[in-house]
Every structure is written in C-alpha cells, then in structure tokens.
C-alpha cells in the first residue's frame, strides 16, 4: 500500500479524531457528544502510527500521526484532582504515616536541629560569647527590645489588628520559605538540608540562651509557647523531606539514581507538604495569638496543649490498626 | 525498532512508548529556548510584583499599613514560589514566556503534568539556580538525554515544543515518469528516496541537485538528469512498484 493510498483510506477517521480532540480540549466536559468513540479512535491512530513508522511512510505522515497520538494521549490521560477529599486524606493519614515510616530519618533530623539548639540554649548563660557571635549586634539589640529586662509579658502586644496581619504575612513569607529551601537543599546530597537545620537550631538556641543571659525569659516564653510546637517540628520535617531526596542520590538502593530520585521525590513531596502545612498553621498562631495580652499561665498551658497535639498528630494519626 | 529512529540519533526527538504499545516522539526543548522563556517570565514576574506593590500600597492607605504590608508579603510568597505552578496547571501547561517561544511542560511519559510534579520541579528551582544564573540546571540539562534540569529529573518531567500542526505537502507536480531503480533498494534506502521526493519542493534547485548528485552510483548521471532520475524512482516507489 502506498503512503498516499494509506492516507486517503484513513484520512476521514483521523480528521474525525482531530475535531473531537479539539472540541474536548477547548470546551472541556460541556461538549461531549460522541466522546465515547474517543478511545477506539485513539487506539486506531496508535495502530496507524506504528504501521506508518514500520512501513516508513515518510516524515510528513508520521509527524501528523505522531502529533495526533500525543494530543489523544494528553486528552485521555487528563485527570481530575481529588479536591478536598484528597487533601484531607493527605493531611490526616498520608503525611503522619510518611513521618512514622521514616523513623530513622526523623531522629537524625531531630538531632541535627535540637542538638545545636539545646547545646547553645544551655551553654550560653554560662558563656555568652558564642551566642553573641551567632546573633550579631543587631540580633542582640532586637532581642533586648522585644524581651529585655524592663519588659513584662503584658508589654509585648501589638497596638492594632493590622499589625497582627502584617506579622502573619511576614511569618508565612519567611518561615515557609525556609522550609522550602531546606527541602530543596536536600538535592545537594542532603548537605544543604543538614547545613540549614544546624544553622537554624544554632540560631534559635543562641537566641533562647541569650534571653536567659540578658533578657526577661517570661516575656520570651509566653510569646513563643503557643506556636513553637508546629513551627519547630515543621523545620525538622522539612529537613526530613530534604534528606529523603538527598539519600536517594547518595544511597539509591536497588534502583538507578534517576529512578531513585523520582521515587524519593514522591515520598519527600508528602513530607514537605505536611511541613508547609504545619509552619503555615504556626504562622497563624504566631500572628494572631502569640502577642495577646493574656496571663503567662494561660499561654503556657496553651503551648503545652499545642505540643501534645502536634506530637499526637505526628505519631498517632493515620496509624494502621492491624500493624502487629 | 524501525530504521527511521536509529539508536544514535542526533536530533532532539525523544521516543516514548505509551501504555497502548505505540511509540510517540517528543521534541524536547534545549537550554537556549528555555532561557528566553525564563527571561520573558522574569520581566512579567517583576511587573506583577510592582503592580501588587502598588495595590498593597493603596490598601495600606485605605485600611491600614499593617494589612497592606501583610498582603504584600503573602503575595510575594505566592508569586515567588508558585508563579510557574499556577501557569503549568493551566490548560496550556506553559507560562506566558513559554507560550511565546511555543514550549510547554509535560510528563516524561507524554501525559499532562500533574500538580505534585509541577510543585516538585518548581520548588527545586532554587537548587538549579545555584550557584548563579541556573548554572547547576544548565550543567544538568547538558548531561541528560532529554535536557532535564535537576527539578525535572526529580519530578519526571520534560519541556517540549508544543506540537505544531505539521505542514501540508507542497502540491507540486514532478516532471518525471515513474521508473524502477537500477538495483534492489533496502527499506531504509527506499524511505530516503521517498522522503527526498516529499521534501524536495521546499528546497532550492542547487540544493536538490547537490543531494541527488550523491546518488550518482545509482543514477549514473549528475545534475538535472540525476535529479529527474531520483524523482522517477521516488514516483515508482510511491506507486508501490508500478509504472
């Protein structure tokens, strides 16, 4: 069969498919008369394309059929995302389960973040030199302005509603961006994530230690108690997401590195999504609750509830019951 | 594997096998065209932020400075991290810059790009940008078969040329009589001659003759005579081996 004969014999069918695809791609589901014919027509075109390739019917014909097959595949493969139901499933089951499954990574990242934090928080009151080096003069001044000796927990409230919102926007921009960078840094073999976690832990630890050295701890703790749990655990989990990515390059296991990266990326994606969720939630609390002029006792108990809730969420949610 | 796609191809066509068993070819886009798209997007990005800054400034004046600042930072966050995701999830799967140079993002399998993939490839953009001006991304592009930057590798995506409608054949009558070739031709040779016949109308006469002169061992003559002879063979093959 000559190319021209082949073309003239099937042309009408190809045109019908092309028209149908154009219609479905432009108008979506509204215009769907005769759409049940689409899979059959698509498969026939796939068959025609194989034939044309095998019989070497020339680039014009194969290009045409190739384009038709690509469009057909794209239209048939178009999926509708799961919407809110899918999101709820991710938040309540898939994410905590992903954290529970990466037990080793979890403790590793906990150590990377809390290690320098605890060291500096405990060491600084005895020897503030290190903390001063990390915070820098500007950092120290701003710490003293916010939590200095002259302040009381009641001082640190914002005058108007608008400033709460401004701080909320700032925390989203700043803190969630740090999470996302921690995740992306994992692509450098995990080194980027580790460096960011260590630095973050050291910085927050130095600030905490410096408060004990030079400021009023009660002001500091009553401000930070509420949002500390989701925010700090969000940092740890975004580190896990980065490490998951980094480990699939360093230690790809039974796969080649490229496949390992794709698979690792899917796992890391769930983790970073959860971390972003937690950090955004922390930004809401930090923006609208933490600066409230309430008694420290109320704020401490709220903080305790938040810590218990965060840990319970991470370790109890989504557990399969018949695991034993 | 058909002879039209030898294993060591030097063009940018990438074969992909669909679940339906057929092989399609994606034309992947290289770093140069993607840089152009990125520059256009950068201009739009800066423009959007300036506009948003103005709007937030207006809101500051009306509602209060805090609200304006907060809104500006939220917008900055969304645009800085999710500009590309927003457009890649659209019907055309391309940012405005990519639309200008007619490229778009798809899965390696040829399927439309999905939200997790788009998020992954764009969150990892910061690493591709390092140490400056997308150096890591460029190096990675040059060392992968499909011009994938690091984010593309993890998300399993490629940037391809939007499939333009193939050109219709030039309807030009060839002044030659069908004539069988002087010796048996194998399938690849037949295909080459048929393609020559199909594409020749787009070339200058000198170019046509330059190519047909290469076939002197087959046609026994040079110049116009050789060209006519090649066309005759092509017509003969096109008619399925009949006069």
UniProtKB/TrEMBL annotation, chain A:
A Pfam entry, by short name: SpoIIM
Annotated keywords: Membrane, Transmembrane, Transmembrane helix
Top-level taxon: Bacteria
Regions crossing the membrane: 105-124, 187-212, 232-250, 270-291, 297-316
The protein's name in its UniProt record: Membrane protein
Organism in which the protein naturally occurs: Brevifollis gellanilyticus
UniProtKB/TrEMBL annotation, chain B:
Segments forming domain RDD: 28-155
Cross-referenced InterPro entries: RDD
Residue intervals passing through the bilayer: 36-59, 66-86, 123-143
The keyword DNA repair belongs to this UniProt entry's keyword annotation: no
Subcellular location: Membrane
Alphabetical keyword list: Membrane, Transmembrane, Transmembrane helix
Membrane topology of the entry: Multi-pass membrane protein
GO cellular component, one term: membrane
PANTHER family: SLR0254 PROTEIN
Species per Swiss-Prot/TrEMBL record: Brevifollis gellanilyticus
UniProt KW Transmembrane helix keyword: yes
Protein name as it appears in the record: RDD family protein
Predominant localisation class: membrane
Pfam name, any one: RDD
